[in-house]
Amino acid sequence: MAKLDAGGTESTLQRLRNRYRLVVMNDDTYEEVVTFKLSRLSVYIGLSTIFVVLVGLTVALIVFTPLKYYIPGYDDLKVGREYRQMKYRVDSLEKAVNYQAKYNENLRKVLKGDASVILDTTQLQVPKDELSDD
C-alpha cells in the first residue's frame, strides 16, 4: 500500500512536472498504437489553451457575424435611436390627431347650434389703470 506523504516533502510544482506515459494499444494484438509522454502541467496548459481558443472563437463568431442580433437584449445603437425617434414622432402625431378631433367636434357642435356647448362666461379681471387709458 502506498504511503501518503503528509510532510509535503514533494512540492506541488514537482508533482506537476512528474512525467507520465499514456499508451493507446490495440486490444486484439496488444500492439502500441500511440504513446504520449505527459505531465500534469502539460495537460493543464493544453486544456486551458483549448478552452481559451474556444471561448475566443465563440466571441468572434458572435461579434463579427449577424448572430449577435439573435441574442436577447442586444440592440444596435442605430436601430435603438431610430426606434426612439419614431416613438416620439408617433406620440406627437397622436396628440395632434386628438387636438384636431376635439377641434372638429367642437366646431360641429357650434355649427349645429348645440345647446350643450358650455360657453366661457367668466369675466376678465382688467386692471383699472388700463381702463383709464382709453
UniProtKB/TrEMBL annotation:
Q: Which chain regions cross the lipid bilayer?
A: 41-64
Q: Which domain of life is it from?
A: Bacteria
Swiss-Prot/TrEMBL keywords: Membrane, Transmembrane, Transmembrane helix
Stated name of the protein: Peptidase M23
Organism whose genome encodes this protein = Terrimonas ginsenosidimutans
